[in-house]
C-alpha cells in the first residue's frame, strides 16, 4: 500500500464523522457527531480549519449547497471523503491495530490495581 500522510487524532475523527453523516455532512452536524459519538467537544472553527487542511491534501471535497432562508440566505458547505481520505483512514487503522496487537492483557486493568495487585 502506498504511504499516505499520517493523520492526527482530530483529523481521523473529522473524516470518520463526515463518512458517518454521508450527504448530511456540514459543519454543525459534524460538530454534533463529534460530540455525541466521540465525546469530543470541538469549536466549529477547529472543524473547518481541519476540513480545509484535509481538502488541501485531497482527502475531502466540499461544495456549497443551496442558500436557505433559515440561514438568512447563506448556503451550507457540505463535505465528502475522497478515496485518498479513505486510504489514509485504512492505513491509520491498520497501523494502530498492529500496535495494539498483543497488548490486550497488559491493558486490561479491570479487577487489578495499576500497581499489579
Short description:
The protein has 117 residues and is α+β, with helices and mostly antiparallel strands. It contains 5 helices and 2 strands, in the order αααββαα.
Strand content: 5-15%
**The CATH class of the domain at 9-67 and 75-94:** Mainly Alpha
Strand tally: 2
The helix count comes to 5
Shape: elongated
Radius of gyration (Å): 18 Å
Order of helices and strands: HHHEEHH
What is the typical, i.e. mean, pLDDT? Answer: 88
List the main descriptive attributes of the protein structure presented here.
single chain; 117 residues; Arc Repressor Mutant, subunit A; 2 strands; elongated
How does this model look, in words?
The chain is 51% helix and 13% strand. The protein has a domain at 9-67 and 75-94: Winged helix-like DNA-binding domain superfamily/Winged helix DNA-binding domain (Arc Repressor Mutant, subunit A, Orthogonal Bundle), CATH 1.10.10.10. Helix 1 (9-21) packs across helix 2 and helix 1 (9-21) packs across helix 3. The protein has helices at 9-21, 27-38, 44-56, 83-100, 104-107, and strands spanning 60-67, 75-81. It has 117 residues and is an alpha+beta fold. It is elongated, with a radius of gyration of 18 Å. The longest helix has 18 residues, at 83-100. The chain has a two-stranded antiparallel ribbon with strand order 1-2.
Amino acid at each position: 500500500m502506498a504511504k499516505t500522510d499520517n493523520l492526527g487524532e482530530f483529523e481521523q475523527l473529522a473524516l470518520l464523522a463526515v463518512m458517518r453523516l454521508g450527504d448530511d455532512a456540514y459543519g454543525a452536524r459534524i460538530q454534533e457527531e463529534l460530540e455525541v459519538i466521540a465525546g469530543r467537544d470541538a469549536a466549529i472553527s477547529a472543524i473547518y480549519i481541519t476540513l480545509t487542511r484535509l481538502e488541501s491534501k485531497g482527502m475531502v471535497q466540499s461544495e456549497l449547497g443551496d442558500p436557505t432562508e433559515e440561514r438568512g440566505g447563506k448556503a451550507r458547505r457540505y463535505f465528502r471523503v475522497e478515496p485518498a481520505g479513505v486510504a489514509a483512514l485504512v492505513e491509520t487503522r491498520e497501523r494502530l491495530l498492529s500496535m495494539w496487537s498483543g497488548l490486550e492483557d497488559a491493558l486490561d486493568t479491570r479487577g487489578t490495581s495499576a500497581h499489579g495487585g
